[in-house]
Design a protein that fits this description.
- The protein is an alpha+beta fold.
- The chain folds into two domains: about 50 residues, no CATH class; about 30 residues, no CATH class.
- It is built from two helices and five strands, in the order αβαββββ.
- The strands form two sheets. The protein has a three-stranded antiparallel sheet, with no helix packed on it. It has a two-stranded parallel sheet with strand order 1-2.
- A hairpin with a 4-residue loop joins β4 and β5.
- It is globular, with a radius of gyration of 16 Å.
- The chain starts with 18 loop residues before the first helix and ends in a 5-residue tail after the last strand.
């Protein structure tokens, strides 16, 4: 796994105009993956789909969905402590628990 880190973006409150802007800037950062047959863009519905589509189109990569269901925090339905996939596998953020 390759981590892309730009220290100049740390501690910023607003880096991108919107999700489209974020996806376009991410595509620029990932340009080395353009046209690769061994690379696929996976997106989680619904918020990740528009970003994933932009990435796949700009980088000419295969696009697919990852179907998961968020495991909500009881006191905050927007936040999650993990996710369950379509086949029953799950991931829990132990730091939240």
């Amino acid at each position: 796994m390759k981590i892309i880190d730009d220290p100049s973006l740390r501690e910023k409150i607003k880096i991108f105009r919107d999700r489209v802007d974020a996806a376009e800037k991410l595509a620029e950062r990932l340009s080395e993956y353009k046209d690769r047959m061994d690379t696929v863009v996976l997106a989680i519905p619904s918020g990740g789909v528009p970003i994933g589509l932009i990435l796949s189109r700009k980088l000419n990569l295969e696009f697919n969905l990852v179907m998961v269901r968020k495991i909500h925090l009881p006191w905050n339905p927007e936040a999650g402590l993990g996710a369950v996939s379509w086949d029953g596998r799950y991931l829990i953020n132990r730091e939240v628990v």
